[in-house]
């Protein structure tokens, strides 16, 4: 099928490449000319394992092209909207990019097939698709479908090619049929429903995942006092298939471009309807205070951090991405600096971008260099190279052998044997 993908960020680019891999004819469109120029040369503007190779392959095969001009998509039967829906000042989702894209499409001529489906992949408040469909009523042959995206950064290609499920919301047989044809051959459970249900499934899923994390983070605070090990507790819990092993990892909190903004957008939507989502409110509270709670443990141990050197390992919000949106590291750097610590930080991809916000941090090129002369080291993002280290050498290079593992990813018992004082999140 001829498909246009509007917005070539994390979701748009992954969607464009994966649909091209399924044999469709894809045109990726973005307003940012520099991005399009880079993409045309097979260079990915974002870091995502496997993406650049697949991009180059699809460009070579000829079923993926890029443009800054939406008019180049005049023959597209499907228009995927993958633009950002960031947090507005009141917490709601800012729909300005989405509405601009819809109005661009509405002003285009229909393709020669006479039918076109606008597919909303961006995460949008429940009711958005219906409102857009209402506005477009009268444009014959133009349909609106909701098809939320569930991929995770860091494994975006894998998730796009083997999705956990495909959720399709629409109100017309023509839209369902087109979506069915598009995803024919993708082996995944499908949920076909109304647009509003599809939109709600997306927010409810992200809110639930965020809830799992904050629940474990709050239990980790108790575990610290009880002297228990939250990772063992999580392991034991996860063996119950009703609970499941995923998303039970306590840490310094969730970050990223989605959980923070989607939880507040859902709270905002509920508030507009007079409903209080008190659990979700608490989920956000726990997440907001989690980095500070962990830093307090560090300050207690060091009797303050002023004038001390602290190593910070990992800056992006999770490994295998270059995204620092809402990354817990930003809160950690800010608090440490405020309290007068000197900081050496390591991240394989994000030093330059974090450096623009925190110029006084010493960004080192190798993880081991961050530990040199440090009075304590903190793991904030569990990059492989920040976890697999020569611990004897590291201990010898530090001013004090104190480790704070914000992701429970360092080998605590082994480290104690080597002579470190080890503190994890909810385990010591
Ligand atoms: N990042 C993620 O892992 C996931 C994101 N989502 C949702 O998908 C949506 C997109 O997220 P990201 O890909 O992270 O956003 P992003 O911010 O990385 O990319 C958005 C892109 O859209 C482009 N754009 C904006 N308006 C445009 C227009 N009118 N025409 C053409 N291009 C335009 C921007 O230049 C940018 O390149 C959001 O609603 C997000 O909540 C959903 C699942 C996963
Ligand atoms: O809507 C979205 O944008 C996406 O949001 C998340 O994906 P993502 O934010 O890319 O990454 P996750 O793997 O979910 O991690 C989010 C944050 O939670 C943290 N996390 C994750 C799992 C866990 O057990 N504990 C924990 O602290 C991670 O460190 C990270 O900071 C969801 O997992 C995706 O399904 C969804 O499509």
TrEMBL record:
Substrate binds at residues 150-153, 202, 247-251, 255, 318. Its EC number is 1.1.1.22. Keywords: NAD, Oxidoreductase. Residues 311-412 form the UDP-glucose/GDP-mannose dehydrogenase C-terminal domain. GO terms for molecular function: NAD binding; UDP-glucose 6-dehydrogenase activity. NAD(+) binds at residues 30, 35, 85, 123, 153, 261, 325. One of its GO terms (biological process) is polysaccharide biosynthetic process. Pathway: Nucleotide-sugar biosynthesis; UDP-alpha-D-glucuronate biosynthesis; UDP-alpha-D-glucuronate from UDP-alpha-D-glucose: step 1/1. It catalyses: UDP-alpha-D-glucose + 2 NAD(+) + H2O = UDP-alpha-D-glucuronate + 2 NADH + 3 H(+). It is an enzyme of class 1 (oxidoreductase). The active site is at 258 (nucleophile). Belongs to the UDP-glucose/GDP-mannose dehydrogenase family. NCBIfam families: NDP-sugDHase. This is UDP-glucose 6-dehydrogenase. It comes from Brevibacillus centrosporus.
């Amino acid at each position: 099928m001829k498909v246009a993908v509007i917005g070539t960020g994390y979701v748009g680019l992954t969607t464009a490449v994966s649909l091209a891999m399924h044999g469709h004819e894809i045109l990726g469109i973005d307003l940012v000319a520099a991005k399009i120029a880079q993409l045309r040369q097979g260079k990915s503007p974002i870091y995502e394992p496997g993406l650049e190779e697949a991009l180059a392959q699809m460009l070579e095969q000829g079923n993926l092209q890029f443009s800054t001009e939406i008019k180049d998509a005049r023959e597209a039967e499907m228009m995927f909207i993958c633009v950002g829906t960031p947090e507005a000042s009141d917490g709601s989702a800012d729909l300005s990019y989405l509405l601009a894209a819809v109005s661009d499409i509405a002003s285009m001529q229909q393709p020669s097939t006479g039918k076109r489906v606008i597919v909303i992949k961006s995460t949008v408040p429940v009711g958005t698709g219906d409102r857009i469909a209402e506005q477009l009523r009268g444009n014959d042959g133009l349909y609106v479908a909701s098809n939320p995206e569930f991929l995770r950064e860091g494994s975006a290609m894998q998730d796009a090619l083997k999705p956990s499920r495909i959720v399709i919301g629409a109100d017309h047989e023509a839209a369902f049929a087109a979506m069915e044809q598009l995803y024919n051959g993708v082996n995944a459970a499908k949920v076909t429903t109304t647009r509003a249900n599809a939109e709600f499934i997306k927010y409810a899923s992200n809110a639930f995942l965020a809830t799992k994390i904050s629940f474990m983070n709050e239990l980790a605070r108790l575990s610290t006092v009880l002297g228990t090990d939250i990772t063992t507790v999580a392991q034991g819990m996860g063996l119950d298939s009703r609970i499941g092993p995923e998303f039970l990892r306590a840490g310094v909190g969730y970050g990223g471009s989605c959980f923070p903004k989607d939880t507040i957008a859902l709270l905002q939507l509920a508030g507009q309807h007079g409903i209080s989502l008190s659990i979700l409110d608490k989920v956000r509270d726990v997440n907001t205070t989690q980095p500070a709670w962990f830093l307090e443990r560090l300050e207690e141990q060091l009797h303050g951090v002023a004038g001390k050197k602290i190593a910070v390992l990992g800056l992006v919000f999770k490994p295998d991405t270059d995204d620092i949106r809402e990354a817990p590291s930003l809160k950690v750097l800010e608090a440490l600096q405020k309290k007068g610590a000197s900081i050496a930080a390591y991240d394989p991809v994000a030093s330059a971008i974090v450096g623009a916000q925190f110029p006084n941090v010493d960004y080192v090129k190798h993880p081991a260099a961050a530990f040199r002369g440090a009075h304590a080291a903190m793991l904030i993002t569990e990059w492989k190279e920040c976890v697999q280290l020569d611990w004897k050498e590291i201990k010898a290079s530090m001013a004090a052998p104190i480790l704070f593992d914000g992701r429970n990813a360092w080998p605590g018992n082994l480290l104690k044997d080597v002579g470190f004082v080890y503190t994890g999140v909810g385990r010591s």
